Amino acid sequence: MGERAGIGVGALLGMTAEALEPGRVVFGLTPDPKFANPLGTVHGGVLSTLLDSAMSCAVHTTLPEGAGYTTLELKVNFVRAVPVQGGRLTCEGTTVHVGRRVATAEGRVLDGDGRLVAHGTATCMVFPAVTEQ
């Protein structure tokens, strides 16, 4: 864990997997100056992406092989500004409910001092595994 790997937005932003277990995912991210908004703090879209990734991946860890999902709704609350040079962020996503067609999850982003900087919820649509006949 904790290694930079993969493809897509996680690799683009430098997210690392710190913990992966059924119903729980922790990702880490060190802000880059490129992530700044016009005020010089980490853009809310980066924090939203971190939350969406952790929460939806937490759902993914509970699904049977071959099943899929997509985020239907994302709600994010920003608690405090995050300095671009403020150090490493961690985001824990956990499932709240996983049903046959809909799953929900919640997440929290903490700064290097353990302070809450953002939290949110996600609703995912679950696609069952396709079985061959």
TrEMBL record:
Signal peptide: none annotated. The keyword Disulfide bond does not apply. Keywords: Hydrolase. It comes from the Bacteria. Residues 40-118 form the Thioesterase domain. GO terms for molecular function: fatty acyl-CoA hydrolase activity. Belongs to the thioesterase PaaI family. PANTHER family: ACYL-COENZYME A THIOESTERASE 13 (PTHR21660:SF1), THIOESTERASE SUPERFAMILY MEMBER-RELATED (PTHR21660). This is PaaI family thioesterase. It comes from Actinomadura logoneensis.
